Amino acid sequence: MSTTTAPSQTRNTVYVAVFAAMIAAMGLVPPITLGVIPVPITLQTLGVMLAGAMLGPWRGALASLVVIVLSVAGLPLLAGGRGGLGVLLGPTGGYLVGWFFGSLVIGALFKYWVIRMQSKLLQLVAGLVATILGGIVVIYLFGIPWTAVVTGLDFKTSLVGSLAFLPGDLLKAVVATLVALTVHRSYRGLLK
User: Fold this and answer.
1) For the segment 115-149, what is each residue's pLDDT rounded down to a tens digit?
2) For 69-114, what is each residue's pLDDT tens digit?
3) Does residue 95 form part of some domain?
4) Is residue 191 part of a domain?
């Protein structure tokens, strides 16, 4: 192994581990249940958004995947201390699968589009678009139909129930975008 790849591989491993730990730590914040649909509001999607926006597509998606795999393996890393195969097979499973693809989309958009914008305003707008697309649209695309199928709800009820998540998820998207852009301005090599 050459000396130039070892630090990069080590750095990538550390970034993935740190962001996986951050996503898991955000699960310590108690979930908020709505009663309309059996999917709680959690802080962990903020971690998923940050992983993609700060680490890029593959490292961000890998950080999300680590948390998903460890949770499915039985570690209580999800909000409320949940873990095990049941979380993937249950009503929240689609949202978990969406974490991987959401962070992948956010990371790709940040790496190849957002940080290349010339003005701070354009970066902010593009960052919000990227985070909303990956962190909300993509995750909901997996979560809403999955919840409908697993619970037996019709798609419309699952869709309407998920709208309760939207205000909080939009706030998370704003926070993730502002944090990621601030970090990228200070440390320009993070997405390389």
Assistant:
1) 999 999 999 999 999 999 999 999 999 999 999 99
2) 999 999 999 988 899 999 999 998 999 999 999 999 999 999 999 9
3) yes
4) no
In a domain, 192, yes or no: no
Q: The pTM is what?
A: 0.91
Count of C-beta atoms within a 10 Å radius of residue 185: 11
* CATH for 106: 1.10.1760.20
- What is the Cα–Cα distance from 149 to 74, expressed in whole angstroms? 23
pLDDT score of 41 more than 80: no
What is the arithmetic mean of pLDDT over 139-168? 92
Residue 121 lies in a domain: yes
